Amino acid sequence: MTELASATPDDLTASFDIAIIGAGMAGASLAAECAGHARVLVVEAEDTPGYHTTGRSAAFWEESYGGPGVLPLTLASGVFLGTHGLLSPRAGLTIGRAADRARIEAFVDRYAALGVDIRLKGRADMTALVPGLREEWCHGAYEPNGADIDVAGLHQLYLGQARRSASVLKVRARIAQASRQGDEWLLEWAGGTARAALVVNAAGAWADQVAALFGAAQLGIAPLRRTIVQVRTDPVPPADMPLTFGIDEDFYFKPQSGRLLVSPHDETPDVAHDVAPEELDVAIAIDRMEHALDWRIAALERRWAGLRSFSPDRLPVYGFDPQVDGLFWFAGQGGFGIQTAPAAARLAAQLVLGRPRDAMTEALDAARYAPGRFMRP
Fold first, then answer.
1. Any idea which fold 9-54+151-218+313-374 has?
2. How far apart are alpha carbons 226 and 305 in whole angstroms?
3. pTM given for the model
């Protein structure tokens, strides 16, 4: 959605069926799934959709990533992503030291029992996959079916689908006030207003703040800062090298266009804002990479940070607010919002529109992700 449809304030005096707050991956995917069945408005606070988390993601599709509660969404999304040519194969490798052997084996057993293709690897296999891996890393869990995700391509696919269905996007429209008027919400921002029967809170790191505007209880969705650096190394990373995690979840790295992307896998509590990387986190990322790889860093070329927003139980939140009429939550996607976007958006649209499940969503337990799980009766 460079813009779904160009919209002036006068265009927005009519009522919409659904207003979605946020045009990142969550809002765009849900708009695409709902468009054609309802008149949809997407309200974005920034100048462009996907400016924050979506535009800063180094996303990948890995079955175990996010934990067992996220796995069904990941598996359900994989066929869609592959069918639309948005996946590039890249295996995943979780590595540990000698003292981590039992943890690596338990990791493999846990996910193998859930149907994931995951295998133990010893030192020789690991060094064939990741040349220069330091000697102390000797136990690994290998997932051959992982992939890099074309994040921009997926986002644009959804924005395009919504645009072609005559949905409306309004950018530079940070909601300042919301009030219930009969069976509709009146949304107000600087320079404009709109009405909608249903509002979807797809505001990412701002989800709790947005909920408060509608008189809803905040769920404790916490923005956490994640740092990534891009380095030029000697040797050049093999293009087919796996995405490599530490078993302690304290770093990951993967090759990209002849460079190495490295993250300290940080989850530093922050506030919802245009986040920037901290020098300490950049230094930690490099230090952890150097403790894993016997490679020389020739240059630190880029650094950036984004916000990942987690609910208290680290599962996403999809569903109607049990206390506030006309408010639907679509938030708390953590670091797995890209890899689960197709199934999450399909499920949420079915809940919003009252439509039946289909092959993508039939195995998903919607109650597991409902916002009511955080609210006292």
1. FAD/NAD(P)-binding domain (3.50.50)
2. 5
3. 0.93
